[in-house]
Amino acid sequence: MSRINFVRGVPADEVFPRAEILESARAVVMNNDSPALRYGDAAGPQLMREWVARAHGVDVERVVLGNGSMGIFDLLCRATLAPGDAIMLEEPCYDRVIELSRLSGLKPQPIALRSGALDIDVLRTAAEQTRARYFYCVPDFQNPSGATYALDVRHDLIKAARDLGFTIIEDSPYRQLRYDGETLPSLFELAPDVTIHLTSFSKIIAPGLRAAYALAPREVIAAVRRMAESTYVTPGNFALSVAGAWLTAGRLEPQIARLNQFYRPRRDAMLKALRRHFSSDAYTPPEGGFFVGVRLGRGIDMVRLQQALAVEGIDIQDGRGFFVDDPDDTFIRLPFGAISADDIERGVTRLAVHAKQ
């Protein structure tokens, strides 16, 4: 019986476009004009930057590439903030963002998501009190809850940013993985004046490429480029050149269609299992992405729960890591992308049994 890994939200190996990646890699290696094997601009290979600029309808000088979206987030914080500055984060929040913020000496200020909705009043109060420059969020299929910001929430958030003078960091690695429901405009599409758009192709092509980018005002991009150059001279030009060749060959849309067809049944299996074992108010059904956050209903001994499930071949993550200062000991994140429907059913069933003991 296979071991079930509910710890990491990784893509399934079956959906990596291996032959296409190999073809793209061969093309950039054999192209003498490609920067794939050389040092290059700290903002990344021009071919991919131009593709991104066309895709979003922006000038190429508003695009910077990097080694994973968290790598760019780290550079952005170090280039534009100082130790002791506040940064507002949605809560629960992707745990790596909390860790990176603290490593940069920043003061994370949590803004609650309640039943998947951002508490705008809390956000406004925090912005006024802390004078934070940024608010970080994942508005589409949020990590770790799976929630999506409604259109009215997006407009309220944008208004707050404009009223109070902060910038939204919109992280969108899952945005294209929508399995049902209506596609909403991104925050960057609605308000490029107050939004930095951050995303990666880790869930679309392959995480090993570490291909990511940010869209931001020119002065912000310039600051990130300077920080990148002083940090690692140039990003991973080989991987970014491969990603750029893959994108310019028109591979993206067919791959997204394949991914949505592949992942939708796994999302459905997760929701079916949750409906069987948990109340409807314990989770927000995700319309896409890789995760669903579940509140188990009462405080539990997370270490005991992890140990009991590990004996049965099921690994879970301590959900308290998704909170800044006041951990919720009822919360757990369940990924479903790299787990079969049968294993999802078995894993959720055993989780429910042990959580209720």
CATH architecture of the largest domain: 3-Layer(aba) Sandwich
State the helical fraction: 40-55%
CATH C-level class of the largest domain is Alpha Beta
How many independent structural domains? Answer: 2
Q: In DSSP terms, counting alpha (H) and pi (I) runs of 4 or more, how many helices?
A: 12
Structural class determined from secondary elements = alpha/beta
String of helices and strands = EHHEHEHEEHEHEHEEHHHEHEEH
Q: How many β strands by DSSP?
A: 12
Mean pLDDT: 96
Biggest β-sheet strands, sense, barrel: 8 strands, mixed
Strand order of the largest sheet: 2-9-8-7-6-3-4-5
Q: Kindly identify the CATH topology of the largest domain.
A: Aspartate Aminotransferase, domain 2
Overall, the morphology is: globular
CATH homologous superfamily annotation of the largest domain = Type I PLP-dependent aspartate aminotransferase-like (Major domain)
Beta-strand content bin: 15-25%
How far is the N terminus from the C terminus?
24 Å
Radius of gyration: 20 Å
Give the low-pLDDT segments.
none
